[in-house]
Amino acid sequence: MYSSGGFYPHELEQSLRFNDDDSAYLSRTPASAGNQRTWTWSCWFKRGSLGSYQNLLGTEYNTGGGNYGGYITIEDTDKLRVYSNLSGTVQTHITTNMVFRDVASFYHVIVVFNSTEASAADRVKIYVNGSLVSYTTTTAPSLNVQGQLNDGERHDIGSLRANGSNIWFFDGYLSEVNFIDGQALDPTDFGEFKSGVWVAKQYTGTYGTNGFYLNFSDSSNIGDDLSGNGNDWTPSGLVATDVMLDVPENNFATWNPL
Fold first, then answer.
1. Model pLDDT for residues 162-196, shown as the tens digit of each residue
2. Which of 54, 114, 204, 209 is 20 to 30 A from residue 77's alpha carbon, by CA?
């Protein structure tokens, strides 16, 4: 462990490296659906390649019999998309105006989904490094709609599973992954500004039934959930050496894909 001299309120120690050539991902199938109207996703990520679809979180997507599913993904335009589809009808389609093309640094992204908000513009909020970012609204979720993320289907981190096959593999590093079931939270629950720099803060609240916390501290149990819920994830294409010391507070130099 390195020492930051006390500057950081919460020192992240590990990240998990996803190599798209290894078809690497984590998977979990909840015992039942959670709150599909209100949830918060928070993670730090550093990209390893650009210009391709790379999924962060997705529920199993079926484009054959049912045409349903949802995901948080980075598009081939390097923008972030939040999407949900049920029976061929797009429920949510939000894409950031911001592009994510810095392969040398970690981004902190929070996606807050809350279809109970009166204003359609407030039903999906995306924060990057503590600041709310603008987005293109193709389809905002309807009032009280149940999106497909946090349903009872299989979920993957680092890929999207469509029609039984994994696609859209993430390439890069993930650290400090939190999913909060049933709450629409603020950036200050996960970070804070210090000397003008957005840094991680330990989340201390509750997680809800399907919530989880992954900090990748145990290389022998990569998908271990530390929220207290026991919502562990199963790794595929990932090994102990993919647990890295490359974190936002101790950012390593990596090859630039450009």
1. 988 999 999 999 999 999 999 999 999 999 999 99
2. 114
Q: How far apart are CA 37 and CA 52, in angstroms?
A: 29
CB 144 within 8 A of CB 170: no
Alpha-carbon span 142 to 133, nearest angstrom = 21
CB burial of 41-61 (b: ≥16 within 10 Å; e: otherwise) equals bbbbbbbbbbeebbbbbbbbb
Given a cut of 70, whether residue 117 has pLDDT beyond it is: yes
Rounded Cα distance, 160 and 105, in Å? 24
